[in-house]
Amino acid sequence: MRDNIKGGALTETTLLVLLALHRSNHGYGIMKFIESSTKGRVVLGAGTLYGAIQALEKKKWIVLNSKDEAQNKKKEYIITELGQQKVKEELQRMEEIQQLALSII
């Protein structure tokens, strides 16, 4: 998962995983959320997803949801406040690009 650190841009995978985790979710649930939300345009393999999850945990943008872990055998993750802030920053960046494009075309 290579996010453009200098420009602040997130990869599509990163953004989609963060959006999928506004509610506590496990890996398979994240994959299904992304596939459904993108109408099948994006289908993540397990390796891609779990690589993204590991990277997001390192950045502290998501955490293991310990409340759900006690009740469920599957590991569930949830977005942190820092992760939510990154999503907002990305949406602002994307809006600026859209406005630029609309001013040109």
From TrEMBL:
Can you provide one Gene Ontology molecular function annotated for this UniProt record? Answer: DNA binding
Tell me where on the tree of life, at the top rank, the source sits: Bacteria
In this chain the Transcription regulator PadR N-terminal domain maps to 16-88
Against InterPro entries, the record matches this protein to: Metal_resp_DNA-bind_regulator, Tscrpt_reg_PadR_N, WH-like_DNA-bd_sf, WH_DNA-bd_sf
Do you know which Pfam families this protein is assigned to? PadR
Keyword terms of this UniProt record? DNA-binding
The record's PANTHER family line, in alphabetical order, gives: PADR-FAMILY TRANSCRIPTIONAL REGULATOR
Put simply, this protein is called DNA-binding PadR family transcriptional regulator
Protein's organism? Paenibacillus turicensis
